[in-house]
């Protein structure tokens, strides 16, 4: 059972509905949303309650307890996270005709228990119906911070119901980049504010290090992301053998994950081109391990077709690591000639190869300490938190004249 901390009873409550959030099984899923909520919770002027849907079926007993207001929770990071059912044996075997009524009953219990002043919807489609219900029936306003990319996902059904309508009904819509804000406006007609994703400043920071990577010993490149074509892993691997012709002792570090079948495909390509000794797979790394690897590398490569933000690229900049990237959306907000290079996003091998070669040649001109300092100054957590808290106050106060100072 969720219990408020001492001193929090009189604080206005914000319900965070999260479409993606880390789990015990997957600590990377939705890590950017977790960081954002934990940053906002550090302000202390509001009480924050995180709610997510569980896709695996709830037992009938567990579901009945949820309907009765006995919400199960687990601590993830610094936040207690409440789970409500997306699937349930209660729906599947007994009351499937009454699923909407049951879902509304759970929402009513949430409102009765926490008396929220605001709903913060993280990614619109996951809790669109719930946010609209709470606004229309319970008069609880909601804001959206969007992370979909490209916006909206092509595979989404009923986009009018789960994307367009809730975006238009939201009090404020936030995009993580200028590029994403333009997509939101083009699709829905709504102008979004731009507030970037949160970087873990305590972990991703510049540290002096002795790097041995030079033209004589080869360069160390790093790619971070899921190993899909859209993220550019195929593109990069096609080009890398030619980069090795110019810099034969170089190493490409790959951080991310893929299905077993996908890994088999990638390793077959690598073996075919005989570059096994130049590729290092790291899997999914913790933030601490990833930061250390950034410090050991010479530059970061983003070969993606589209990035709503480009979180890992900015994390690299926070450590002082320069970035070469395709002109793929969100990265335009933070890549400059002083910290890296943008190349044309045409997915042509010669374009990326030239970018890698130019980056290797230009490396001595980058000041890693300055790169880190400027990234931290422009994308500081304090700036992000203040912007969101201002939004909270502006949305809540007209509703009931609340003062949170």
Set down the secondary structure blueprint:
Blueprint: E1 13-18, H1 31-41, E2 47-54, H2 60-67, E3 73-76, E4 79-85, H3 89-95, H4 99-114, E5 118-122, H5 128-138, E6 142-146, H6 159-169, E7 172-175, H7 178-188, E8 193-194, E9 220-224, H8 233-246, E10 251-255, H9 260-272, E11 279-283, H10 287-296, E12 299-302, H11 311-318, E13 323-326, E14 340-343, H12 349-362, H13 368-378, H14 381-400
Parallel strand pairs: 1-2, 1-5, 2-4, 5-6, 6-7, 7-8, 9-10, 9-12, 10-11, 12-13, 13-14
Antiparallel strand pairs: 3-4
Helix pairs in contact: 4-5, 5-6, 8-12
Description:
The chain has 14 helices and 14 strands. With 405 residues, the chain is α/β, with parallel strands linked by helices. Helix content is 41%, strand content 17%. An eight-stranded mixed β-sheet has the order 3-4-2-1-5-6-7-8, sandwiched between helices. A six-stranded parallel β-sheet has the order 11-10-9-12-13-14, sandwiched between helices. The protein has helices at 31-41, 60-67, 89-95, 99-114, 128-138, 159-169, 178-188, 233-246, 260-272, 287-296, 311-318, 349-362, 368-378, 381-400, and strands spanning 13-18, 47-54, 73-76, 79-85, 118-122, 142-146, 172-175, 193-194, 220-224, 251-255, 279-283, 299-302, 323-326, 340-343. It folds into two domains: 13-199 and 380-400, Rossmann fold, CATH 3.40.50; 220-378, Rossmann fold (3-Layer(aba) Sandwich). The model has no long low-confidence stretch (mean pLDDT 90). The protein starts with 12 loop residues before the first strand and ends in a 5-residue tail after the last helix. The radius of gyration is 23 Å and the shape is globular. Strand 9 (220-224), helix 8 and strand 10 form a beta-alpha-beta unit.
């Amino acid at each position: 059972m969720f219990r408020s901390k001492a001193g929090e009873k009189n604080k206005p409550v914000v319900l965070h509905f999260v479409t993606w959030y880390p789990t015990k099984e997957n600590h990377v899923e939705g890590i950017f949303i977790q960081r954002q909520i934990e940053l906002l919770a550090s302000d202390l002027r509001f009480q924050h309650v995180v709610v997510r849907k569980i896709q695996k079926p709830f037992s009938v007993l567990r579901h009945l307890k949820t309907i009765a207001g006995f919400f199960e929770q687990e601590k993830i990071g610094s936040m207690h996270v409440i789970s409500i059912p997306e699937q349930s044996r209660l729906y599947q075997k007994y009351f499937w005709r009454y699923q909407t009524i049951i879902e509304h009953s759970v929402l009513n219990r949430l409102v009765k228990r926490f008396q929220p002043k605001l709903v913060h919807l993280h990614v619109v489609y996951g809790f669109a119906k719930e946010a609209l219900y709470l606004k229309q029936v319970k008069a609880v306003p909601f804001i959206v911070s969007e992370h979909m990319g490209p916006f909206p996902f092509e595979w989404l059904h009923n986009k009018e119901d789960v994307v367009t309508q809730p975006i238009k009904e939201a009090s404020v819509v936030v995009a993580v980049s200028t590029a994403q804000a333009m997509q939101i406006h083009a699709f829905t007609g709504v102008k979004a504010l731009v507030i970037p994703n949160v970087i873990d400043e305590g972990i991703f920071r510049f540290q002096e290090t002795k790097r041995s990577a030079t033209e004589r010993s080869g360069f160390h490149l790093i790619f971070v992301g899921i190993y899909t074509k859209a993220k550019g892993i195929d593109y990069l691997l096609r080009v890398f053998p030619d980069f090795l012709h110019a810099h034969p002792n170089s190493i490409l570090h790959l951080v991310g994950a893929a299905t077993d079948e996908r890994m088999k495909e990638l390793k077959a390509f690598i073996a075919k081109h005989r570059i096994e000794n130049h590729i290092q797979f790291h899997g999914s790394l913790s933030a601490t391990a990833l930061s250390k690897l950034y410090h050991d590398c010479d530059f970061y490569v983003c070969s993606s077709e589209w990035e709503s933000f480009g979180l890992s690229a900015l994390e690299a900049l926070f450590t002082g690591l320069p970035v070469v990237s395709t002109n793929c959306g969100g990265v335009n907000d933070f890549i400059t000639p002083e910290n890296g290079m943008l190349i044309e996003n045409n997915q042509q091998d010669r374009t990326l190869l030239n970018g890698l070669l130019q980056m290797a040649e230009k490396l001595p001109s980058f000041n890693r300490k300055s790169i880190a300092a400027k990234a931290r100054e422009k994308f500081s957590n304090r700036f992000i938190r203040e912007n969101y808290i201002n939004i909270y106050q502006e949305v809540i106060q007209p509703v009931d004249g609340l003062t949170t100072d």
